[in-house]
Every structure is written in structure tokens, then in C-alpha cells.
Amino acid sequence: MRTIILAAVAAIAATSAFAEGDVTKGKKTFGKCKACHTVSTPEGEVLLKGGRTGPNLFGVIGRPVGTADFKYSKALTAMSENGVTWDEASLSAFITDPNGYLKEQGIKGKTKMTFKLKKGAEDVAAFLASLNPAPAEDAAEATEAAEEPTEAGEAAQTN
Q1: How many alpha carbons fall within 13 Å on the CB side of residue 152?
Q2: Average pLDDT of each block of 10 consecutive residues along the chain (159 residues)?
Q3: Residue 106 region, left (φ>0) first, then alpha (ψ -120 to 50), else beta?
Q4: Cα 62 from Cα 21, distance rounded (Å)
Q5: Total-model pTM
Q6: Would you state the pLDDT for residue 142?
Q7: Quick one: CATH architecture of 2-133?
Q8: Most exposed of 33, 80, 105, 114 (fewest Cβ within 10 Å)?
């Protein structure tokens, strides 16, 4: 249990330092996104139940564009082939105007996402970042720290 808590704290600390949006507002605004998107862990735990018209958004921040288990448009596939990775700023811009974002990136074509979030995209991006799994190194460090005996614990074991 301690390991899970330490990993969660590390993940929140890592993502909140870069978040420009408001996570609480983003959670509320994400309600508009749930019509098409769900947030589920690779283990199958559903964090936010939603539609399946769009891709699962678990771990989207830091993930290469167009790599989740979903049939993406040719335009997003092209971005993926160019090695583009989602960060909060790029996801926020995409959510605001998906096809406009592609044009700004020099990508011809359209995305399957027709919805434009007029307000609060940076909050949604911050919220999704807060749901990201802990980076592997941080999680490993948190696990090691949780497994190391404390001085009080060592004293109790020797007595």
C-alpha cells in the first residue's frame, strides 16, 4: 500500500509541476469528452467510463501521437510517423481545434475528431496529465524507498 501511495505522489508531483491548467476544472470539463473517450489503465481498471468512438486517453500525455489502440486518420498517423509526442500544450491546442492544429503542424488531411472545445482545453490536458502513470524511474525509486527499512524498523527487528 505504501508503495502505491508513494508512486501516486511521485506521479502527481511530476505532472503538476508542468501543468498550466487547473486539474479540478479539467475533470469537470472532461465530462464533454466522455461522450467519445474513456480513461482505462492497461490492466483494465476504468478510471473514467466513457464512449469508445475515440481512443482511450489513459497516459496520453507523453505518448506518441496516434499510437493507442485505435484506428486513427491518415493525418494523425503521419504525425506519429514524424515522431510527435503529446504534451499538455500540444494536446490543448489539438482539443481546441483538431483540424486547425494539424494545419499548423504542416499536416495535410483531417482528423476524425470533429468536436472543438471552445474553453478549458488546458484544464483538460492538465487533468489527463494528472492521470498519467508514474514514470518508470520515479516508480522504481518510490518502490525502493518503500522497501528500505527505517532506522526504527531496523531497531525493532534487532530487539
Answers
A1: 0
A2: 39 46 94 94 93 94 91 90 92 96 92 94 96 65 51 49
A3: left
A4: 16
A5: 0.71
A6: 47
A7: Orthogonal Bundle (1.10)
A8: 114
